[in-house]
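assembly run, all chains below
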Amino acid sequence: MASSFTKMMSGRTAGLLVAGLGAGAAATGYLISDSAALNAEQRRKLYPPSADFPDLRKHNNCMASALTPAIYAKLRDKVTPNNWTLDQCIQTGVDNPGHPFIKTVGMVAGDEESYEVFADIFDPVIKDRHNGYDPRIMKHPTDLDSSKLTSGMFDEKYVLSSRVRTGRSIRGLSLPPACSRSERREVERVTVQALAGLKGDLAGRYYSLTDMTDEEQQRLIDEHFLFDKPVSPLLTASGMARDWPDARGIWHNNDKTFLIWINEEDHTRVISMEKGGNMKRVFERFCRGLKQVEHLIQERGWEFMWNEHLGYILTCPSNLGTGLRAGVHVRLPKLSKDPRFGKILDNLRLQKRGTGGVDTAAVGDTFDISNLDRLGKSEVELVQLVVDGVNYLVECEKKLEKGQDIKVPAPIQQFRK
Amino acid sequence: MLLYVCMYLFSNTKKMQLSAEDEYPDLSEHCNHMAKVLTLDMYKHLYKRSTPSGFTIDKVIQTGVDNPGHPYILTVGCAAGDEETYEVFKELLDPVIRDRHGGYKPTDKHKTDLNPNNLKGGDDLDPNYVLSSRVRTGRSIRGFCLPPHCSRGERRAVEKLSVEALSALSGDLSGKYYALKNMTEAEQQQLIDDHFLFDKPVSPLLLASGMARDWPDARGIWHNDNKTFLVWVNEEDHLRVISMQKGGNMKEVFTRFCTGLTKIEELFKNKKHEFMWNEHLGYVLTCPSNLGTGLRAGVHVKLPNLSKNKKFEEVLKKLRLQKRGTGGVDTAAVGGTFDISNADRLGFSEVELMQMVVDGVKLLIEMEKRLEKGQSIDDLMPAQK
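ok done. output:
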């Protein structure tokens, strides 16, 4: 291997441009050998894809399960129109081998085109993560008509709060792992301008992370609105935290029930929430707010990234489709101790988290219960699923309180056939 | 014969439509060498350029943008992705080098001297005070991108070449390589106990530059059987070379250092590779702070009295020395024992820096002894070196 390096590096590279250096530069004259002057293309040829293929033997994430040397060889030298590469997509998965029990996704998109240019790896990852969903042949339903939601009012003796979140990306601008500072600032500008047009119960204000006063910061922390620079290596390895806190901020309405994060893990994260169990109202505000924001950006010639196979395009493949997580904080002291709790949740396509969100433990007997799925079912379907599921859990809790027995429900079908 | 080879490439045209003003970082809260020097005008000249391998100004400065710094400790705030970085982005790096290296000018020449015979004394530092002696530097292999930018293939090639070169060392320098990803539990524990093992960096200064990508692929530690000569492969630089031993015989440490380095360089040359070096910047390394000699020569020395004396800082400054805790950079001293080393890297040769450390530490010990006896140290105060 060493001798082939020698042969390829001893030739003088052709077509080197000295023009544009400026008069002063040429005069300085430093000794740089031929081998140092290889351009990016020549470097790539020097190293066949096998030389760059990552060592994934200790890895357990969706990317590592799907990436073969053949796929890598096919995709390594491709770039998106924004010059984003496969190596950049998979960096987070290479750097974070994962956990034997928790399978992370292990890759991110740098722009909308990533999902197409690197389809050979994104498609199997999407399939793995989204229960067999095949982007080549299946279509994702988008439905933000909140009037279709039934029984969306929970028993507030058990359900403490209700929340729906999603993300939206602005078409034409690179995503957080790849964006330049100017693109990120453009996302901020476009979004803040649109949000300034919201009225009535949605009227609100923007707090940029760089300009925040200490008082504003404290208040936002107390209200659990403030997001901080990510520390998770899963996120930082993707490059999304570059230039922090430039062009990052939080917008919320005066009622504090509609909240937008700008330039955190996605261009925008949209959150509708309130205390209590009125999921119907939370979802209604969610849909109305999203539609109005979409309308406001369209007025200025922008749109959200969306297509009929992948739905809404976001940075992490796990958030494709609806990008929607609808959940409640609910007290389930008896049910949570029942050995069937896990199975009930699985069959209802629900997941539990601690009340601090992802990767936290439950405090007391209060859980964050939300939908597992994101892609292949519409927003209305997923929120309905959460409503029906949480109602079922509360019924189980009430039964156990009265000493009655509960049943594990039949598993919910994955995709509409 | 000097050849100037440089290539400016236009990066993605779509991004080029956005102006320099829109891209220029907000450095208003920042306090590092890069932030002090990078004006909007300078950024305008540089933001369309890239080195032949594709390293851009934004990549050079990313670590400095992400880590605003501290008013008391001025970090450098930029890193090189390849040898050409120092040429293509001269406009930024020359003033950074000037500020970091005591006024070093773009026209200055750096002298390299790895002849241990030129070091006077250094074999008799008082072992009652000097607990251990150590000299380290770094080397980069010409033709390969540096840790912030290298591909996996390049990093592995650096590892392979280095391991081949090191395996040819003999005598008291003969030793063994431990790849980080293949290490057994027992080997790992031994290396930790010996204080040889380096871990994946956690400092945001390093992580932000991209040097920790693909960890622990192609990283490893080589050391000789005597455990007095140690090489880190693909940590912050291609190679970090360390010579060390207990006690105060700096001369011996330096001699082994020079012999080892010279031999390694020879072995690389046999394989048609050389170290990155030029007569202006000396040895080229990832961080501009390590240019020139890349050399930090130091001792762990007991100075309980002197360290409490109000003249301590002044003395160190005059001697061109710096103090650290015994855990290395960013640690505190434990029980009056300090890590004392040269403050300079560039503009002085290896021998000159060693001489400063040897002579300086001798003086510090003399002062310590005086203070032990309750005597004054005023007549010992040195002139500014």
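Chain B touches chain A through 59 residues (CB under 8 Å).

The longest strand of chain B covers residues 130-139.

not gonna interpret more than that til we talk
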